[in-house]
Amino acid sequence: MIDRTKAALASGGKIGAVLWYQGESDTVKYEDAYSYGARLKKLINDLRVDLNLPHLLFIQVGLASGERPYIKIVRKAQKEIRLPNVKYVDALGLKLESDHLHLTTQSQVQLGIMLADSYLDSGLNGIC
């Protein structure tokens, strides 16, 4: 990802934000859930350093899937990330497919709108 992003930036590309929707697998084991916040902070900081984009906007999606035992720990860690230019969009309440993991198509569209609004409201669009 880093190599491809650097290549795109070198050829005139721009990056406006990282959209992050991950963490369901971290809700299965306590150790993973407990360390999620620290690992996410490290990822954000490492991405910014590796790409030389210290103000890179990072928009994360609060998990919506609720059948794993430690989802509350991961969601709490997501909400408590306190780094500059990190935004939180909550997917909780969006409708899930029958697998209780993936969003329905309608919910994916709704989440896309929420992410776009968060990006546009950031005031950072286009700076990177």
UniProtKB/TrEMBL annotation:
Listed SUPFAM superfamilies: SGNH hydrolase (SSF52266)
> What Pfam families does the record point to?
SASA
GO terms, molecular function: hydrolase activity
Q: Which UniProt keywords apply?
A: Hydrolase
Under InterPro entries, the record lists: Carb_Esterase_6, SASA, SGNH_hydro_sf
The residues that cross the membrane are none
Q: What is this protein called?
A: Sialate O-acetylesterase domain-containing protein
